[in-house]
Specification:
alpha+beta; about 200 residues; tt1808, chain A; disordered N terminus; 6 helices
């Protein structure tokens, strides 16, 4: 699909068009966006976070899973994201009208936690996705800025690698930053033993 400058695409058109060419695409407010190829460091951080969360929900015997590829469709239906780490609640997937055929969730009850590992398009994670996940009502959203790419107003001056845990409180995200050896406080996994530095170090090894 060659997208005209002013022609917006619906979610159904996006899903029907989606090519099997090894590239990743998202729908941002009706515009198809090709996601930049991930770096090795990005993939190591993503994998480390997914492993730590998997160990924790397995230990607690919770009905969760982390799919390889799935979409989160926002309430406005103008955006469809494929998060870096998407924690799904298996108990609610039967209520999802699009999951069986399109691997897409639309309900906050299906998503206890979502993680975006920040890359060069950091504004998407700090602004667009934060607002859309907030609107959807996803209770917990992590922004893993291991390479300190975000704006100084978020991560300080000089910039510091930071993990933000955004917790939904009265319909709005409260952003709590974690740096260095600070233990990450997760509302979904209050017993999680993980520091920000462990996530940053995952990019190196």
């Amino acid at each position: 699909m060659t997208q005209a400058l002013h022609e917006l695409v619906t979610f159904d058109e996006f899903i029907e068009w989606y090519p099997n060419n090894g590239k990743r695409y998202e729908l941002h407010r009706g515009v198809i966006v090709e996601m930049p190829p991930p770096t090795g460091e990005h993939e190591k951080v993503l994998g480390f976070i997914a492993r730590k969360l998997t160990v924790e929900f397995d230990r607690l015997n919770l009905p969760y899973t982390i799919p390889k590829t799935a979409f989160v469709k926002t309430p406005s239906a103008e955006s469809s994201y494929s998060p870096d780490v998407l924690l799904l609640n298996l108990d609610n997937l039967g209520n999802e009208p699009l999951f069986q055929k399109q691997s897409t969730v639309t309900q906050a009850a299906s998503v206890p936690l979502v993680v975006e590992v920040v890359s060069t398009n950091w504004r998407d994670d700090y602004y667009s996705k934060l607002g859309d996940y907030e609107e959807m009502g996803i209770p917990e959203y992590w922004i893993a800025d291991y390479a300190a790419l975000g704006a100084r107003k978020f991560i300080g001056n000089p910039k510091q690698p930071t993990i933000f845990v955004c917790q939904l409180v009265d319909g709005e995200y409260q952003m709590t930053p974690f740096q260095g050896n600070a233990a990450i406080a997760s509302p979904t996994f209050p017993e999680l033993k993980l520091t920000a530095q462990q996530i940053f170090d995952a990019a190196k090894y």
